[in-house]
Design brief:
With about 400 residues, the protein is of the alpha/beta class. It contains 15 helices and 14 strands. Helices cover about 40% and strands about 20% of the residues. It is globular and about 60 Å long. One of its GO terms (cellular component) is cytoplasm.
Length: about 400
């Protein structure tokens, strides 16, 4: 069975075609700059262990044109990996916000699409684009089942004491103002990989997803009991351009005392803060370079970044009454040895002791980076959200 995984943004479409017999990608790519003067498609195929790349630039007026071109590339005589679009049995969609309505993977029906529209206010930048991706895929791949995998679904097992805010109950009942969490597909995937590696599921694990966006989850026996992001992706950890958790009084101060428009505060906290606000750089590789040059702002930023992660480790260890393993994942979690070192420093009370040599090594596979006698395992596990989406879609329709 072939499953196409689609992640549609406002001006882009990321995709990956996965052969579920091998769980390996046949092709992957991205359609970029949709609606702009010059769009672009970067397409890769994987045949017999050989990677081939195709790049195109042309005007891509809308998502339909972009996804139709993807279908043509997938079936192209020279670079194609299938002979006909009908060989794609399902399209798995990454959908950002399912609110309380979607607690598991679903086949997308007219009722599901109607409910997604109702949830637009919870994710105004993401859900409309996600729905566009669904509707375009229905047109381009009419024979395929359309499957929705929600970022928020994995976190819907949180107890009420974890997801409720101490605000008037009417705001929760009428508007759904509560913690939802994100990156759920990644947190679920790496927990299951960790459980398989450790040989049991009866585990208390903290998963740490560190990319440009970053979040953590407390996962007890496979069930999420808490997570760091909230109703939206701004809360929690320091990120590339997001502030993470701050005192809400800062917002009132900027608006009421300094006459900042609320739109400007929104942009400030989401797009101009985090590592960018602290150092002038949002890419951790740039900040790391400055760190080792002795730049004071970069050193402070790294230490703040690690300190916030440590705070959540303490919170979640308390919430689960124990800790068996930490899991670092995503671009920064998998590749930034400095972050891992700072996070694990002076954490012996939690049974966390890093092995520097293991931490400095690199691998594309699961690896253990704790000292052999450590009570708490420290694992680096490459995430694969596309494969997890494909697996969930496959389980639903097989």
């Amino acid at each position: 069975m072939n499953i196409l995984v689609v992640n549609a943004g406002s001006s882009s479409i990321k995709y990956q075609l996965i052969d579920m017999n091998t769980e390996k990608p046949l092709a992957s790519g991205i359609v970029e700059r949709i609606g702009l003067k010059t769009g672009a498609i970067k397409h890769k195929t994987f045949i017999n262990g050989e990677e081939r790349k195709t790049a195109e630039e042309f005007f891509i007026p809308n998502h339909t044109v972009g996804l139709k071109r993807v279908a043509e590339l997938l079936t192209n005589q020279e670079v194609g990996v299938i002979s006909d679009p009908s060989e794609i049995q399902a399209v798995g969609h990454r959908l950002v916000h399912g609110g309380e309505s979607f607690t598991k993977t679903v086949e997308i029906t007219s009722e599901v699409k109607a409910k997604m529209k109702e949830l637009f206010p919870l994710a105004p930048l993401h859900n409309p684009a996600n729905l566009t991706g669904v509707e375009v895929a229905e047109e381009v791949f009419p024979q395929a089942k359309q499957i929705g995998v929600f970022d928020t679904a994995f976190h819907q097992t949180m107890p009420e004491i974890a997801y409720r805010y101490a605000i008037p109950e009417d705001l929760y009942k009428e508007f759904g103002l509560r913690k939802y969490g994100f990156h759920g597909t990644s947190h679920k995937y790496v927990f299951e990989k960790a459980a398989h590696y450790l040989g049991k599921k009866d585990l208390k694990i903290i998963t740490i997803h560190l990319g440009n966006g970053a979040s953590m989850a407390a996962v007890k026996n496979g069930v999420c009991v808490d997570t760091s992001m909230g109703i939206g992706p701004l809360n929690g950890l320091i990120m590339g351009t997001r502030s993470g958790s701050i005192d809400p009084s800062i917002i009132f101060y900027l608006v009421e005392q300094k006459n900042y428009p609320i739109e400007e505060v929104n942009a400030l906290l989401n797009k101009k803060s985090g590592m960018l606000g602290l150092t002038g750089h949002s890419d951790m590789r740039d900040v790391e370079e400055l760190y080792f040059k002795g730049d004071k702002n970069a050193i402070l930023a790294y230490e703040m970044y690690a300190y916030r992660i440590k705070q959540f480790i303490g919170n979640y260890t308390a919430a689960m009454n124990g800790l068996d393993a930490l899991v670092f994942t995503a671009g920064i979690g998998e590749n930034d040895k400095l972050v891992r070192s700072l996070v694990c420093k002076n954490m012996e009370y939690f049974g966390i002791t890093l092995d520097s040599a293991k931490n400095n090594s690199r691998s594309n596979n699961i690896r253990e980076i704790n000292v052999d006698e450590a009570k708490t395992k420290i694992l680096v596990i490459p995430t694969n959200e596309e494969l997890e989406i494909a697996k969930q879609a496959y389980e639903l329709i097989k």
